[in-house]
Design goal:
Two copies of one chain form a homodimer. By secondary structure, chain A is mostly helical. Chain A folds into two domains: 86 residues, Arc Repressor Mutant, subunit A (Orthogonal Bundle); 75 residues, no CATH class. Chain A is globular, with a radius of gyration of 16 Å. At the A-B interface, helix 1, helix 2 and helix 6 of A face helix 1, helix 2 and helix 6 of B.
DNA sequence: CAATTCACTTGCATTTTGCAACCTAAAATC
DNA sequence: GATTTTAGGTTGCAAAATGCAAGTGAATTG
């Protein structure tokens, strides 16, 4: 069932890529981490267009790799996925990947937000980690659509007061 | 010739993964960055066992993506590959991926070195960047073989004096 | 000028991916 | 309480990517 091919080397980067080196795995982790996604459906509708068989297989792989856990909900039909400690520890990797992409590829990310995240790495990571611990599902980042972002003021570190 | 499939979304992480989301690309970038690799042969003998056709195709893709450049050497038969500014800017991504792998996967990396890199991220990155600018090919990291590493004392930030 | 080195290409079998359709079980709705 | 909807997947199949071994052609060494 698992198509994971083979382990080539025991260096850390190589081992990380054995588990995460494909077009989808880190995207799923990011959706769990910074958007509030929990369910199969949400990943599917993520806008990236992952096929359902690949999504199912990746979720199994990430689970087998200790990056996500499956949590049954009270509601009998829906399952929630959640990052483990090992999974949330990928936050710095994803943050750097996001910043690199925003600077060097022509993305839709608003410059102001990127600038702020870059200036406040530690605070962004702390907030990410807090949301994970608190199971706070509000998106840390909006899906980067309109440049005049209407949604909740995101990310930035300095304006932290109690929610609600 | 280029099998690059399709662009799914314009978010920065997704775009980064369109270019780098496979098992080999980031490994090649790492070999250029922290080991002193320059030539096709060196990548081939890297110990990871990449097939030559895949290596050739990935080098073309990375070149097309502006991450590496091909520099002909005086010697007519050998080509050197070198990271561009955009390529060396992946250093933070690779550092975080290395640290994550070292902590969460069971790798061969010596704990002491990992600890030191983690404590001195900025210095490790500065040294990486300096080596790139100076075209200094001495490996920043040894290939992590024996735990009693015999090779040159690597990485650490504090012991920086003029080379030679 | 023969052998070797280097940087690839080519052919071909195997694996992985993408796509659409289908399935099962549990809510919701009527 | 039968039907429809929702959630979370499987299954089948064609297309693409990958791994492997072998081959190519130019430059260089002996």
């Amino acid at each position: 069932m698992g198509p994971m091919p083979a382990r080539r080397s025991r260096c850390p980067v190589s081992m990380s890529l054995d588990l995460l080196g494909d077009r989808w795995s880190l995207l799923i982790v990011r959706d769990l981490m910074v958007r509030g996604y929990r369910t199969f459906r949400e990943f599917q509708r993520s806008g990236e267009g992952i096929a359902t068989n690949i999504l199912a297989e990746r979720l199994h792989r990430l689970e087998a790799g200790g990056i996500v856990v499956r949590e049954p909900t009270g509601d009998g039909r829906s399952t929630h996925y959640r990052l483990t400690q090992k999974g949330i520890a990928l936050a710095p990797v994803l943050l750097e990947l996001l910043l690199w992409g925003a600077h060097h590829e022509d993305s839709d990310a608003p410059c102001a937000i990127i600038e702020q995240m870059e200036q406040n790495r530690a605070a962004v990571l702390a907030e990410t980690y807090r949301r994970w611990k608190d199971r706070d599902p509000t998106p840390l980042l909006p899906p980067f659509r309109s440049p005049t972002a209407p949604a909740a003021a995101p990310a930035a570190a300095s304006n932290r007061r109690k929610s609600k």
